[in-house]
Fold these 3 entries.
Entry 1:
Amino acid sequence: MQKDLKHYRKSYEKGELTEADLPANPFILFQSWFDMADENDHIDEANAMHLSTVGVNGMPKTRVVLLKSYSRDGFIFFSNYHSEKGIQLDENPQCCLSFFWPALEKQVIIQGKVSKIAEAESTAYFKSRPKGSQLGAHASAQSSVIGSRAILENRLAKLEEEYKNLEIPKPTNWGGYIVKPINMEFWQGRRNRLHDRILYSKNNDNWKIERLAP
Ligand SMILES: Cc1cc2nc3c(=O)[nH]c(=O)nc-3n(C[C@H](O)[C@H](O)[C@H](O)COP(=O)(O)O)c2cc1C
């Protein structure tokens, strides 16, 4: 099977990122881009981001997770601490996050250091989740091999019964991670492949700003 996609071509013309637009702090720019994505009717789940991790075997893995909050402290997502990403992050607590919002022709790439958030904060978020998601977190040993879907559904049915009238506790191996950026790149598609790329790199309490060739 072979499909040739070489003729797929698009001119990016929806925006520009000039030096005059750049705040000293990249979180300000992130916020304005994120709000644009969030308000755009053609973008579903503006908070879906790619998370890339590399464990001790050196083989990178990327998957989508949902950004659940951000502040100048960093970017927070939730997951199973014993999942493949959890193991890789234990081995090497650094990652790359990336967002691509095609309707805006914008990409943001963030490299940073990762740590677990406070247990109390994870518990508070867990409690705010719908009961089905809470039970799902208990039912699924994320990233482990399972014999069939039926095993998972039976496990969920049992848990539904067990916790019928009870508060569901947060699994001890489930919680949030915070990514504290060491750099953030903002990419805006432009005509003739002369895209705008602006790199913010953390420099003590300040951010160095540089333009990269597209
Ligand atoms: C739109 C979307 C959102 C997702 N959000 C999350 C999330 O917030 N947390 C999570 O652990 N997995 C999420 N997943 C599932 C992950 O992509 C992945 O399958 C899972 O975390 C297991 O990854 P791992 O085996 O590399 O650890 C999401 C998947 C998609 C497509």
Entry 2:
Amino acid sequence: MHPTTAASEAGAATRRYLAAMRNRGPLSIDWGGAPTRHKRYPGAVRTRLPWESGDGSALGRIGELLRDLLGMTRLVWCHQLDDGGEPAGRPPMLLTGRPAPSGGGLYAIEAYVAAGEPRPPGLPAALYHYDPVHHVLERVRGGDHTGALAGLLADGPAADVAIVLSAVFWRSMFKYGDFGYRLICQETGVLVAQALAAGGRLGLPCRAWLRFPDGEVDRLLGLDGAREAALAVLTLTLPPGGAGRPDATPSARELIERPVAGESTPLPKPMPDGLAAALHRACSAASPTGSPEPAEALRPRPPARAGRAFPAPEPATGIRAGTGASRRTSPLAGYRPVPLRGAALGAVLAAAGEGYPADLPGAETGPAATALCLLALRVQGLPRGAYWYDPARRTLHELAGAERVDEVATGRLLANTRVALRGAAAALVPAGDPVAGARLFGDRWYRMQQMEAGLVVQRATLAATALGLAARIHSDGANETTDEVLGLAGTPLRSLSFLLLGTPPTGGPLVARPMPAVVHEEVMPRSDESLTRTDHL
Ligand SMILES: Cc1cc2nc3c(=O)[nH]c(=O)nc-3n(C[C@H](O)[C@H](O)[C@H](O)COP(=O)(O)O)c2cc1C
């Protein structure tokens, strides 16, 4: 065990974790130890959420936003394939699909909502947990938590509603071990991107906060920080109208004194002790505010070898990333080897490289901790090769030619990545220096950077989906061979994720049906007096 003290060298926990992840062996998975993929507060007062924003009410918009974040939106009849895309000889399965991708489909992230009348009307002031199975809010603790939560964020913004994304570590780590921490951080970034896109579509402007005192936020949510901990906060502004926010809301200290609802048992195991747990503690111990610094100083610079520059293709117009959310799935068996239109690639790159509202310095003008590398495998008007995308100038700088790009397939890849590479049109590879920001943010930089990597690939995915394309994250594609091809080896930069994009196959082993938009009948057990329900449909 590596204890973390304030005196630890900034970035030391990150370095130890990265070294262990580089040399990690094959997984040995005890499926018997798999926890449930959602949590519930069974005795809590519940508020049923509208499935769609429909009438444009504030509660309807919040319901649709939560649905687009974590809702169970698809039933998937899935014929099981092995990693090479061949039938696995096991019976088909019926799965519930969700709008955003999740590492291993394990859905480690939960959402809590702090809100309260009069904004939005119809929702008594409380801290709620989103139950995706029933699409309801479960009241965790009474009282308006928005002021107390906002007070824990830098600049204490006024927020109508706050959504906290937390991670149940064991849900991913029972399978992936310490590597699960990286997946969890990226998945949080994926969901931040999803919230920004859905919020934009629904008229709920949203801002992401990655820097806050973890322990205090966890305590306010009633989380122990070891089984489950808060990783990101989203603040939402409701449309104008109706009553304003109350002048004063209870303090965090007052709220923590109040009882919290009991969560379902058995509880998941705490995060196992090891290098991920040490990194997590170091992230929490790092000063949440960091020190002031010029944003440009942290943004990765292209490696010296970047060569010819090409203007990035003009983006296809009329793409609204938020519209792709409900149709997105990760293709199971690769892509049709169809050339990608330059305009489609232009739109994907523009979406990935756009600024976003967050407390990561520099994020307003574009990804602040990650660079965007591209493998153009079959793109009309762009020679096959590896490129560095400069979002500010909309230019692509050649990193490697066609012959080197083929080397990516010789890396340590899983069989499904090899299959997908055959037909994919492009790979988007966020890259960054995992310790560049440690002198300012300590080990928390690792978490912030991983979240941004997740955000970037999800923004690209949503743009691709809106264009009728498909995309899948292949974490194994971010490896040393890919770094060699991109010219990152020998620099502090490393590939952080690997998103393949292309034309989805027609047909295939999946039959997915959207959940009915309007549920006319529903069975909700009311086994005891406390199970009261507020109806809004
Ligand atoms: C952070 C992250 C990492 C992922 N890594 C991989 C991967 O290495 N290989 C893979 O095939 N899929 C990967 N996926 C995709 C998930 O397996 C997929 O999202 C999940 O099975 C749910 O399916 P869906 O995306 O079709 O809804 C990843 C997803 C996320 C969010």
Entry 3:
Amino acid sequence: MLTDDWFTVERIDAVTFAISEYGHWEKVHSFLLIGEKKAVLIDTGLGIDDITRVTDQLTTLPIYVITTHVHTDHIGGHGSFEHIYVHRADQRWLTKGIDGLSIEQVRKGISKEITKPVPPSFDPETYEPFTGEPTGLLEDGDMIDLGNRKLHIIHTPGHSPGHISIFDETNGYLFTGDTLYDETPVYAFYPSTDPGALIESWEKIAALKGVTKVFGSHNSVGLDPEILMEAKNAAIFLREHDLARFGTGIHEFNGFSVKF
Ligand SMILES: [Zn+2]
Ligand SMILES: [Zn+2]
């Protein structure tokens, strides 16, 4: 398998790879999905190092970047790609920067708890998050055809207004971004998040048929689809107890947690 100083590449199958940044506390994953005619890269990581060093070794096909959502840890390498797509509701953040997030906060977050050597090109004092125009916009229900592999775009707002999940119908892989992952709480406590929308998004992805594996963007790579039923039950519980509101704190469930 490919080895790299900064990125950890994990082969999910012959045409699907997780590209992880375990040297940073957020343990963020980007995912490369290779089709017949083109490849899709779901997010581009932190931008601490150059992700194309890895993607260039994995495919020679044109790469289309799909953004799960516009947060600094998911768009870091966007500037290295020609084709980038984002949901309409996060577009403005991609072009102009994230509302209410100062450059000082961004630089503090990016330089915190780094446990691997970073390249000389990375300087937290001058780090700038990507901003730029997308090639195109995504909507709920869009389908991206990679030749022999169809990806469905599912709008899953809550963690951000334009957050999307991606369902690879051919393999049953569901990429949930920051809508659902294990180990650390899913964040829905900043002003730009929406706890009510987040739990509706859990119900929406739990209704999908044929999911074989769930891939969140942080922590463990590849979760049992059972987590979707847990998320659906969590949504019902939180709604019934009027807990899907800001300030209600951390709620723990079987296999994941959320912070409102
Ligand atoms: Zn996020
Ligand atoms: Zn994230």
